[in-house]
């Protein structure tokens, strides 16, 4: 079954995801899209920051209005200049201090949002990092696909490993 068929047969739902799973899904999404490693790392961190600072309702609206939301950042030469600057800033690894702050955030440990809200947080994060508006649709589609094919426990493990945390045994 093609990626498009998987996405069409299983659109995003209100099923819950935890923040560490979302981070893992974002990392895998970026890898599958062939993004430079640190771009994906920065996007995962910014997604976690968005989960922390933005309400679930705003994230859900962001997902439902993604196409119009991307236009608020501008288009054309200005958008390209912002993206060029953002790319140069994302060539370096995420600062350890930022990773430590996210990994120490107990509220984020237990934060649960829907798949739809998670996609909204991802869009908001991409816009915050000045991703091009044309990059949002493939990003959202691949994220949805990964939600269908990558087991949540693996995504959680990827997210925890990225933050330097260990999986707690039950």
Automatic annotation (TrEMBL):
* Protein name, as recorded: Uncharacterized protein
| Native source species | Paenibacillus spiritus
**Taxonomic lineage of the native organism:** Bacteria, Bacillati, Bacillota, Bacilli, Bacillales
């Amino acid at each position: 079954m093609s990626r498009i068929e998987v996405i069409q047969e299983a659109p995003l739902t209100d099923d819950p995801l935890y923040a560490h799973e979302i981070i893992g899904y974002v990392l895998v999404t970026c890898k599958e899209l062939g993004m430079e490693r640190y771009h994906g790392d920065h996007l995962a961190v910014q997604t976690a920051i968005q989960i922390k600072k933005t309400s679930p309702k705003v994230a859900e609206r962001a997902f439902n209005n993604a196409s119009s939301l991307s236009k608020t950042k501008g288009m054309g030469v200005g958008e390209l200049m912002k993206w060029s600057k953002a790319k140069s800033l994302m060539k370096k690894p995420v600062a350890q201090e930022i990773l430590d702050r996210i990994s120490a955030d107990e509220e984020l440990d237990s934060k649960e949002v829907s798949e739809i809200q998670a996609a909204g947080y991802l869009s908001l994060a991409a816009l915050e990092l000045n991703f091009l508006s044309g990059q949002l649709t493939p990003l959202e589609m691949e994220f949805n696909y990964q939600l269908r094919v990558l087991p949540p426990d693996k995504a959680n493990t990827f997210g925890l490993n990225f933050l330097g945390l260990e999986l707690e045994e039950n």
